[in-house]
Amino acid sequence: MHHLVASCISLLIFLLTPSKAKHNSTYNNPILPGWHSDPSCTRVEDVFFCVTSTFDVFPGLPIYASKDLLDWKLVSHAWNRESQLPGYSAGTEGQQLGHYAATIRHHDGIFYVICVYLGAPAETGVLYTTKNPYDDSAWSDPVTFNASSIDPDLFWDDDGKVYTVLSGITLQEIDVKTGDLSDPINIWNGTGGVYPEGPHLYKKDGFYYLLIAEGGTELKHSISIARSTNLKGPYESYKHNPILTNRNTDEYFQTVGHGDLFQDTNGNWWGTALATRGGPSWKVYPMGRETVLFPVTWEKGQWPILEPVKGHMTGWTLPPRTRELPGEGPFNDDPDVYDFKSGSDIPRNLVYFRVPREDSFAVTRKGLRIIPSRGNLTGIPGNDDLSGQKGLGFIGRRQTDTYFTYSVVINFEPKRIGQEAGVTVFLTQENHIDLGVVLLNSSHKDESPRLYFRLRTEATIVDNLPAVPAPRQPVKIIPIPHSWVGEKIRLQIKTINETHYGFSAMPSTRPQAAIDIGSASAQLVSGGSGTFVGSLVGAYATCNGVGSGSDCTQGGEVYIDRWRYSGHGQVIE
Ligand SMILES: *[C@@H]1O[C@H](CO)[C@@H](O)[C@H](O)[C@H]1NC(C)=O
Ligand SMILES: *[C@@H]1O[C@H](CO)[C@@H](O)[C@H](O)[C@H]1NC(C)=O
Ligand SMILES: *[C@@H]1O[C@H](CO)[C@@H](O)[C@H](O)[C@H]1NC(C)=O
Ligand SMILES: *[C@@H]1O[C@H](CO)[C@@H](O)[C@H](O)[C@H]1NC(C)=O
Ligand SMILES: *[C@@H]1O[C@H](CO)[C@@H](O)[C@H](O)[C@H]1NC(C)=O
Ligand SMILES: *[C@@H]1O[C@H](CO)[C@@H](O)[C@H](O)[C@H]1NC(C)=O
């Protein structure tokens, strides 16, 4: 009823003042909440496309599409098959290596996503192409190239020549069919901030504009710009650089930088960049670096003016809201309601830590089956079988809301001590919070092994950064009531407040019998070993090392169903 009244009133206002439609729009940041760092965006006809970084997760390089700049549909991943980069994932050590910041561009009917894969072997430039960004399988195997640095841009000059610009900042001509490169030319060093990176070139009114990120991706992050009438320079730095930053402010959105600029169909300019909420203290930011939108005023022959990033924004008139886009989705703010009905696909917004082992995940009659990985979520770095490089028994989705509830129903009948299945807030293998159901020896001497809830945290301390995660908290072990045996169990993670997660468990058919297992600070999954990535919430299965090679001893698989995630609110200031 209220809805109806409200829409009648707004219709009335609209009819009485038709010029309103021409007025500037208001909207909220982030436009892609949750871990969506280093956005690069472009427009093709009336559709905007963005790609973001994915580092350690597979599938990688998500492609989001939108007609209104606010509703973003996850239409494909440029990297979606192990065969596109055979062996790379398993060969990648370390927590945050993989696909770094990409650039998306469209030219003559072809979409290009150019990126650098860090890991094995060394640094490899990768250039994926497609004519159909709405279909995973249409993305090509990459053309690879010898990348001298990271964050490649792709730029077509008017004479048809194609260039890549990399962190540093260097320019090279590139053959997009073969990956052949000319020798790099150092065209700018930025204004003196550390890590001049994330470059993008634009040609406008006779100038080549070079937009870069500087200052590192933490509190000093910024965007600066230079221009030249000659592609190869010399580039003149703008005297009012940086043109965008929130450093030395008390804004809730910090770390603003690494941007890209594009025009809407009215010719108005916009930009996207990464930003992290939780400022100015910047201690609790489990979602990591997210994508924000800002209006840009760019008059002929002038330097662009970028509107400072906040939660509430006003800018050019946005296109009308619509979700009419091809492809399967979901949209970024859709809740997950996944029952894993036999024959269905694993939803597109669910990701793995590195490429999973074959057959580890399957939708079956009993739900989504996860074969346990011998290494647990922490694993043992350097141990080929237990490091997690060859995949984990873990599947998750981004935490995309300040407040949310996530839960799954597990069907799990462990036979051996150490077998475990549960839910987790996972940043990296070194920073995660797990609520597991695990078979352990009973604490009573004469009792046979029994099932326990176990809440445990893993958090490395990284002291070279301002963000020092809270120390690991004591393990909490609670026996599962005997009366629950034989029932499926729902495990739940729900934000208690802006800074803490609460963990609970209940028989799937008797929510009123829920047991509160405990809470943990979101600071455990903020920064630390995962400053580039953001938290995922998901489900896992492991045997905690029991077995040999990469395999657990038989059994211990878990069947997941009624996977639910819903957001309850965003804090934006
Ligand atoms: C790759 O490029 C670097 C400089 O950018 C050069 O030193 C190196 O020899 C190149 N490697 C190959 C395999 O071409
Ligand atoms: C960048 O810095 C290096 C080292 O100081 C210098 O040799 C080079 O000329 C600089 N490049 C530009 C384009 O100013
Ligand atoms: C509308 O937004 C643009 C971009 O921020 C700005 O340049 C312009 O001044 C605004 N117009 C009005 C009427 O506020
Ligand atoms: C569990 O108890 C059995 C029998 O007491 C013992 O042999 C075994 O080592 C224990 N396992 C663990 C993991 O503690
Ligand atoms: C958030 O919840 C945690 C756990 O219940 C509690 O310790 C903390 O004080 C709460 N914080 C605020 C600001 O209420
Ligand atoms: C992970 O598994 C290893 C054995 O592979 C074990 O030593 C360690 O305690 C486990 N840690 C966690 C947090 O699961």
Automatic annotation (TrEMBL):
<dbReference type="InterPro" id="IPR013320">
    <property type="entry name" value="ConA-like_dom_sf"/>
</dbReference>
<feature type="active site" description="Proton acceptor">
    <location>
        <position position="38"/>
    </location>
</feature>
<dbReference type="InterPro" id="IPR006710">
    <property type="entry name" value="Glyco_hydro_43"/>
</dbReference>
<dbReference type="GO" id="GO:0005975">
    <property type="term" value="P:carbohydrate metabolic process"/>
</dbReference>
<keyword id="KW-0732">Signal</keyword>
<keyword id="KW-0326">Glycosidase</keyword>
<dbReference type="InterPro" id="IPR041542">
    <property type="entry name" value="GH43_C2"/>
</dbReference>
<feature type="domain" description="Beta-xylosidase C-terminal Concanavalin A-like">
    <location>
        <begin position="339"/>
        <end position="550"/>
    </location>
</feature>
<dbReference type="InterPro" id="IPR023296">
    <property type="entry name" value="Glyco_hydro_beta-prop_sf"/>
</dbReference>
<feature type="signal peptide">
    <location>
        <begin position="1"/>
        <end position="21"/>
    </location>
</feature>
<feature type="active site" description="Proton donor">
    <location>
        <position position="197"/>
    </location>
</feature>
<protein>
    <recommendedName>
        <fullName>Beta-xylosidase C-terminal Concanavalin A-like domain-containing protein</fullName>
    </recommendedName>
</protein>
<dbReference type="InterPro" id="IPR051795">
    <property type="entry name" value="Glycosyl_Hydrlase_43"/>
</dbReference>
<comment type="similarity">
    <text>Belongs to the glycosyl hydrolase 43 family.</text>
</comment>
<dbReference type="GO" id="GO:0004553">
    <property type="term" value="F:hydrolase activity, hydrolyzing O-glycosyl compounds"/>
</dbReference>
<feature type="site" description="Important for catalytic activity, responsible for pKa modulation of the active site Glu and correct orientation of both the proton donor and substrate">
    <location>
        <position position="151"/>
    </location>
</feature>
<dbReference type="Pfam" id="PF04616">
    <property type="entry name" value="Glyco_hydro_43"/>
</dbReference>
<keyword id="KW-0378">Hydrolase</keyword>
<dbReference type="Pfam" id="PF17851">
    <property type="entry name" value="GH43_C2"/>
</dbReference>
